[in-house]
Specification:
mainly beta; five-stranded mixed β-sheet; disordered C terminus; 30 strands; about 5% helix
């Protein structure tokens, strides 16, 4: 049975509407939240609000990028724009204006030179951070693009409202596509240099995929939930895998082999929307954002340490634990809630889109 935590280390308050996204800065000194109250808020590590940046509409996503020379913060908004800000002050540097509808998801490349964005205008775009101009448009989607992520340094993953997962190179060429979920793909996370890729769906599934050299994917694990999965996230070291769901719970799993649920974080009184890890040495913090108008910071260091010890003890004389060769399937929640999980992709997609379009205007 997983360890149940109900008391977070910090609760970030002050939001007057849904908190849609949360992100730690790479150095662990700042936490940013994106909120439907039309604001970006940035807190220090003790929970004190450092500054607030007003936007013309709901702020949907936030991401940090720290390089040797620059510390940047990006937001996406329902006005269709991506804003690049100075991380320390919130001063706006440039706006990326090429989307014609809500920008749902953003991600920085590892070197901080590119921003990948996904929009309700049915495109994903690669922007050059230096000038805010579009480098490549990843088009061809028949439904809104809801989630994006870089896969290593040379590929991009895009999830759409049709349930499709598409992997492209950075020139815009599609390398692989598959039907990942029986409903919208709400989140994508990539482990390490892109060996594993995870997706979250409204079909109550979190799925993990192994990425082959040719960019095709094969199913590695499926984690069933009792409600829609809004976010998936790998820890920086790849040992942990976390999900945020519409039931308000955050679940933390062992990444690999059995994909066992190790901890469940139960504080939010409404949907849990987004997650962000902060791992420094043996300390592992996990931030969660929720429709209950708050973000919480959880100390899961004990869970991480216990997992590292268990993995060390499980190693064979050859050095590595035996590898699992078949897909893992993990059920979360009551079995009764699982019945009829996927019943006809077309019918399910139609009903899910009706329930989600109003979020994106």
């Amino acid at each position: 049975m997983p360890t149940v935590l109900t008391e977070p280390k910090l609760v970030l308050k002050g939001h007057s509407y849904w908190v849609r996204s949360v992100c730690w800065s790479p150095d662990g000194e700042l936490i940013a939240t994106a909120c439907a109250d039309k604001s970006l808020r940035v807190f220090n590590a003790t929970g004190r609000e450092m500054y607030k940046v007003a936007h013309p509409d709901w702020v949907w996503c936030v991401a940090f990028s720290y390089t040797a020379k620059k510390q940047r913060l990006a937001t996406s908004c329902l006005d269709g724009r991506v804003r690049l800000l100075e991380a320390s002050t919130g001063r706006e540097i440039i706006q990326m204006k090429d989307h014609s509808n809500t920008v749902n998801s953003i991600a920085f490349s590892g070197d901080g030179s590119l921003v990948l964005s996904g929009s309700y205008d049915k495109t994903a775009k690669l922007f050059t951070v230096a000038d805010g101009k579009v480098k490549v448009t990843l088009g061809g989607h028949t439904c809104p693009v809801l989630s994006v992520a870089f896969v290593g340094s040379s590929r991009a993953a895009v999830g759409s409202a049709s349930g499709e997962l598409r992997v492209s190179d950075l020139a815009g060429r599609t390398l692989h596509s598959c039907q990942a979920h029986a409903g919208p793909v709400l989140s994508i996370s990539v482990s390490g240099e892109g060996e594993l890729l995870a997706t979250a769906g409204t079909d109550k599934l979190a799925r993990v995929w192994r990425v082959r050299e040719d960019a095709s994917v094969e199913s590695e694990a499926t984690c069933k939930h009792a409600s829609e999965v809004n976010c998936v996230l790998f820890s920086p070291d790849g040992l942990l895998f976390a999900t945020a769901a519409a039931d308000g719970h955050v679940r933390v799993y062992e990444a690999g082999r059995e994909w066992e649920e190790l901890a469940r974080l139960k504080r939010h009184s409404d949907e849990a929307n987004a997650l962000s890890f902060n791992a420094k040495g043996s300390r592992v913090l996990l931030a969660s954002a929720s429709d209950d108008r708050s973000a919480a910071v959880w100390d899961i260091s004990g869970t991480a340490v216990a997992l590292r010890v268990a993995k060390a003890r499980a190693k064979t004389p050859g050095g590595n634990a035996p590898k699992k060769t078949e897909e893992s399937e993990v059920s979360v929640g009551d079995q009764a809630d699982m019945e009829g999980l996927i019943e006809g992709h077309a019918e399910h997609l139609s009903s899910e889109l009706e329930g989600h379009i109003f979020f994106f205007h």
